[in-house]
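Appendix B. Raw example, untouched.
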Amino acid sequence: MSEKKSLHAICRWTFNAGKGGFLPPDMRPEWSTKNLDTTGVVKLITEKIRPRLPDDIEIGMEMHYDYEYDEKTAPEIADALIEAKIYLAMTTPGLHVHFAYGGIASLDIDERKKAENYCQRALDLTYGPLKKAWHPDREKAPTFVIWNGSFGYDLASTGIKYMYQNLKESIAGLCKYETKCGANLFIALEPKPNEGHPALLIPTVASALLLWKKLKEESGISMDKKGVNKEFGHSEMIGLDHIYDTVEELDNNAIVHMHTNSQGYNDGIILGGPGKFDIDHGVRVNGMNIAIAALLQESGFCRWKGHDMQARPYDNVEQSIDRVIRSILSWEACEKASRQLNTHQLITYLGTRETAKAEDMMREATVQAQKHFNEMYKA
């Protein structure tokens, strides 16, 4: 019997020179677009990250079309992934870079059409030159994520209703196009409440689940391999409980991909949370992540866990690489602690209203997770 692997996906966009704006744009000049392309990131992961991870971890890669992969670079990237034995875990159209007035939901007919074509090109390359880098297990095929960063607005008007209708029709069309391509990809909506607009369509997990329900009813879209990119930090941004989000997602068999990043407010160390902008820290060792890991294991989830994170604005290259490693090991530590958690005893305490003892169990699990992290990190 082959050893069961834990699947972790690393994002191309983590490796950047700096964010700019109020922060240095050139903190890491080695990682400027001039000095580090996507194939270079594959090599970096192979040489600097994988050797510091446990052997039972399988690595995947996440990329945006068309500024992290495109028609010109996709064949070379696929070859680099195969040589490195890294799998394509996720692709997504970077609509927000080109189509900021609603994208596929836009009331500008010309923008909407261009955005739809853009999404199709992103799919074509995923099924085309990049397909040879897919995992051989069809259940671990990549996810095509529809992120809502461009589906936004800043004006209170009845136009929001018509944007939402456009969104449904465009996503239905994209799903039908993907079916013609082969129907082998997983397709995920990624909820987010705001940024880069004050308000976005699909702001919450419940919104995403409802949208899929409407697409099935109104357009006959199959729900097979359709669901949510579970993005922990986006729920945290508006103070929602991402443990309850997990319950809803699992109850609807809807988790097809995960972004395990954190806004940081729930560990008592890193600042962030409701009302803050998208900080994109890596995984934190805390009770909430242990609870989510336990729920996922109970459900049998075995797909990609993505690390949608940014280097801190004051990190050099070495510290930035280290943060990716810490994020992966932190999730593994939380997962190990969750397997040691006596769920039956926990539920018994809750059933007899001995909530302080239940709290003690979760605190002890958090302590154990930190010990697991320390052991893996030192090793």
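End of appendix B.
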